[in-house]
Amino acid sequence: MKSKRFIYFILFTILFSSHLLLPAQNQVLKIIINGDINPVSAQYIIKHIQKAEIENFECLLIEMDTPGGLLPSTQDIVKEILAANVPVVMYIAPSGAGAVSAGAFITLSCHIAAMAEGTNIGAAHPVNLMGGQDTSKVMGDKVTNYTATWARTIAEKRGRNADWAEAAVRESSSINEKDALAKNVIDLIANNQEQLLERIDGRNIDLENGEQKTLHTQHADVITLEMNWRYKILNRLSSPNIAYFLMILGFYGILFELSNPGSILPGVLGGIFLILAFFALQTLPVRTAGIVLILFSLVLFIAELKVSSFGILTIGGIVAMFLGSIMLFDQAPGFPVMVDWKLAFTIALSTAAFFVFALGKAVQARLTKPTTGKEGLIGEIGVAASAINTEGQILIHGEIWRAESDEKIKKGDKVIVKRIKGLTCQIEKFNQ
Question: Greater confidence, 298 or 143?
Answer without folding.
Answer: 298
